[in-house]
Specification:
The chain is mostly helical and 446 residues long. The protein is built from 17 helices and no strands. Helices cover 63% and strands 0% of the residues. The radius of gyration is 24 Å and the shape is globular.
């Protein structure tokens, strides 16, 4: 189910972009998945979860290449073997880098993005995962409550995507006039594929067929539903239209918030979290204008802000009664509803550490990769106008050049012929109607 989120992300990003760069985002998400699988097998799992590392910041290479990762109890639960846990956590990492590469939208080169993905996994994601989930991680020992990845997955991808977009620079302003997603149906399809996969993402983090897993899935459903409704209503107050993109955005924001919180809170708290997340993330989309960063897919507003809200929800509403439903974590205390007042500053300190570390290190990685000959991170202005599908891929999600040649151009020719016969134009029309006997005329950029 979690693996199925990869094509969901691909469809979502592709639908949100303009058609001239739609396939490049599908390629970026798909290829980053392959890079992540290699990195995780090579040394990623060991750097994140090796139990013999005691520095609290990053693992060692004791499990390099999955050495000695077999039937021993996993770091996540003694009920599942380490080899299965490594596979499951790999899919978390793949989804995270899939979100991250959305930062290159419509102007970033693909090869440097793959290089950045490998280094980002090593220097950002693995430390964040170690902090929160390794039994010797400083966040784990500090008492941080992060169920399925508010820090490593959501803040990591959201803040990392913002840093990537900041170093990459803005798209050309003239290309942003009258910008609209090229395929809203694909946005909806991608959203619901993600929603389906998210149930495995959050429910599976209980590591067993238990009541805590079911509670996590219930909370994910509730938060997503209320987040989508609230976002859609907020957009309706401005346009008097029920935006499909708005509903999908709110749904994803609710799922993001549920990621760190769904295995800790009661369903009534998920309602509150969904409403607040839908509203706050909606308004947070304006931050990119204040920061003057072209975060075109709103990675920061949805993933970083949503992840922060989910983590803070744990500070107030996490409860021992839900945590103990897995039959394993029976002695873990929740947040304020359990009168654990210190959980608020624990969660806040964790958020501050993950946000600052992710932004700084991601920006440095992107910057230094850009200085390597042949790995400049951005396409030329001319290539940006033509679109990344033509420049980087050579294929298209929709073969609109053929549509132009076979439909639009012949209609133009027929119109000119009629005008010529009525005397409204002079000269002769030498073009043929077939379109196959002449060079196709490129349409203007979207």
């Amino acid at each position: 189910m979690v693996f199925f989120m990869i094509p969901g992300l691909s469809f979502l990003y592709s639908g949100l972009s303009r058609r001239k760069s739609a396939l490049s985002l599908i390629w970026a998400v798909s290829a980053s998945n392959a890079v992540c699988i290699f990195q995780w097998y090579f040394w990623g799992y060991s750097l994140a979860f090796s139990p013999t590392a005691t520095n609290g910041f990053l693992g060692n290479l004791a499990n390099f290449g999955l050495i000695n990762v077999l039937s021993e109890p996993s770091p996540g639960s003694p009920l599942i073997p380490a080899l299965l846990y490594a596979l499951y956590q790999m899919e978390f990492a793949c989804v995270t880098v899939g979100i991250l590469v959305g930062g290159i939208s419509e102007r970033g080169r693909l090869l440097p993005a793959m290089v950045i993905t490998f280094f980002w996994m090593t220097l950002v994601y693995c430390p964040l995962a170690c902090w929160a989930w390794n039994i010797n991680g400083w966040g784990y020992k500090f008492g941080v409550l992060d169920f399925a990845g508010g820090g490593p997955v959501e803040i990591g991808s959201g803040v990392g995507g913002l840093a990537y977009a900041w170093v990459l620079g803005r798209r050309q302003d003239k290309d942003l006039q009258n910008f609209r997603p090229h395929n809203v149906a694909m946005v909806n399809l991608g959203t619901f594929i993600l929603w389906f996969g998210w149930l495995g993402f959050n429910g599976g983090s209980a590591f067993g067929a238990n009541l805590r897993a079911i509670m996590a899935m219930w909370n994910s459903m509730i938060a997503a539903a209320f987040g989508g409704i609230v976002w859609c209503l907020l957009d309706y107050r401005l346009e008097r239209k029920y935006s499909m993109v708005g509903f999908c955005s709110g749904t994803i924001a609710g799922l993001v918030a549920a990621t760190p919180a769904s295995g800790y809170i009661q369903p009534w708290a998920a309602v509150i979290m969904g409403v607040i997340t839908g509203a706050v993330c909606n308004f947070a989309t304006k931050l990119k204008f204040l920061l003057d960063i072209d975060d075109s897919l709103d990675l920061f507003a949805e993933h970083a802000i949503g992840g922060i809200l989910g983590l803070m929800t744990n500070a107030f509403f996490a409860t021992r009664s839900v945590i103990a439903l897995d039959g394993v974590n029976t002695n873990v205390t929740g947040g304020w509803v359990d009168r654990n007042w210190k959980q608020l500053y624990i969660q806040f300190a964790y958020i501050l550490a993950t946000c600052s570390y992710t932004f700084v290190v991601t920006a440095l990685i992107v910057h230094y990769v850009d200085t390597v000959p042949g790995l400049h991170i951005r396409v030329s202005p001319e290539s940006e106008v033509r679109g990344l599908d033509e420049v980087e891929i050579g294929e298209y999600t929709h073969d609109y050049i053929e549509v132009w040649r076979d439909v639009m151009e012949p209609n133009t020719v027929r119109t000119n012929q009629r005008e010529s016969k009525t005397g409204s134009t002079t000269g002769t029309i030498s073009s043929t109607i077939t379109g196959d006997k002449q060079d196709p005329v490129k349409p203007s950029a979207n």
